[in-house]
Amino acid sequence: MPAAGARTLYTAAWVLPVVTPPIQDGAVLVDGERIAWVGRADAAPVSPDATRVVALGNAVLLPGLVNAHTHLELTSLRGFLEGLDFRTWLRTLTSVRREVLSRQDLLDAARLGLVEALRHGITTVADTTDSAVSLTAMRELGVRGIGYVEVFGPDPAHRDDALALLQERVTALRAGDTALVRVGVSPHAPYTVSASLFAATADYARAEQLPMAVHIAESAAETAFVCTGTGPFADALRARGIAVAPQARSPIALLERTGVLAARPLLIHAIRADDEDLARIAAHGATIVHCPISNAKLGHGVAPLDRMLAHGIATGLGSDSVASNDRMHLLEEARQATLLHAIRAEAPDSLSAQAALALATQGGAAALGLSTSIGTVEVGKDADLAAFSLDGPDLQPVHDPAVTLVHALAGRAVAMLVTVAGRERVRDGIVTGADPAWADRAAAAGVRLREWRQRVPA
């Protein structure tokens, strides 16, 4: 790994700045933490005695990918919750977290999730977390990210206690904020957070200038809960003695009424948002993360990405947890986004590979409020970069590197190089700082999960 402050010139068959056309036989000069120059390799302003040169060869070099929604602590649940309806899925997830998985298990899962992310060219994660262990893992592995600490409380009578606990946790966690990793808050969803707790959390986030994220407009059951006070979520709360009544015309309208939209949150999913909802989101400057594979795998539907973009909403891509996706590969999310967009529009390539790749980089950075630092390969931006090899007969010929990345490499490529703020975190597919013991302990946790399943079938 180059020392801090070192000058390194990365050359590649293609440089993909995202904000400008691809550069064939290109190069990127990194000076310390930032990008100092971008252009053709034969015009690079370097002297061999003052600059380290890394020739990547037949590869494409692009901005580090931005995964705008993850649940890293759930990585050990890959493949564990298959075939369950959403209510059962959530109930089972809650049970195993409480009964089987220790804090060490969750930390190891978060670490392995970040190893997977880095190997797939992801340099920034926006993680929604109950345990907050993902913040520790992010700092250990040197990635960029936001850890949105969750708050729950569907009973309005418990609002003050829930908010006080959140504030206590966030105050302690913010002491560890760095230039790369910071704490945010996440009131989980309408069926787990009362309207009064939504409002109180939004007030807290605005007062403390905390980033906020919320799961919203995700399922038919959520819409029924908010709009008519019916459905499985309503039934479950009534069984606990919590009153339920219709709250708003839509989940997005509920967020506006409670002041959440005014805090300009990151809205996770937004599958069931119509044009009136999207206009509300745009007017408040809130942003969206689109999770096409998780949305489809859970049977929730196809989000109106075309309408989100038409309303000018900053939109990124997210993998969600591997518990609802089974993998974390943002190029694959970009590919699925193009395919589902084409189905909605009934037109081929209605979302181009170039546009999908922009969502996975520039769009995600904008959705997280980080676009001044990352998301494109430009002079002055932080040197968050990823390189993928283009070798192999199944990738030839390369007419447009964006098309090759999204439609040929998606779902299988391992990055040959990843840098975060100029520091190499992956070289030749190997993640710096990864510990084999993490996987060994995760495997042991998997055994305990299977034993639990035998005792407590879904």
Write a compact overview of the structure shown:
With 458 residues, the chain is of the alpha/beta class. It is 38% helix and 21% strand.
Care to describe what's here?
- With 458 residues, the chain is α/β, with parallel strands linked by helices.
- Helix content is 38%, strand content 21%.
- The chain contains 15 helices and 17 strands.
- Strands 1, 2, 3, 4, 5, 14, 15, 16 and 17 form a 9-stranded mixed beta sheet that branches.
- The chain is globular, with a radius of gyration of 22 Å.
Topology:
Blueprint: E1 7-15, E2 23-31, E3 34-40, E4 52-55, E5 59-63, E6 65-70, H1 86-99, H2 103-119, E7 122-129, H3 133-141, E8 144-151, H4 159-174, E9 181-187, H5 195-208, E10 213-216, H6 220-228, H7 232-239, H8 251-257, E11 266-269, H9 275-284, E12 287-290, H10 292-297, H11 305-310, E13 315-317, H12 330-345, H13 353-367, E14 385-389, H14 401-409, E15 417-420, E16 423-427, E17 430-431, H15 436-455
Helix pairs in contact: 2-3, 2-15, 4-5, 12-13, 12-14, 13-14
Global structural class: alpha/beta
C-alpha termini separation: 47 Å
The major sheet is characterized as: 9 strands, mixed
Low-pLDDT residue intervals, each spanning 5 or more residues: 1-5
Mean pLDDT: 95
General form:
globular
Give the radius of gyration.
22 Å
Classify the helix fraction into a percent range: 25-40%
How many runs of DSSP E, i.e. beta strands? 17
H/I helix tally: 15
Share of residues in strands: 15-25%
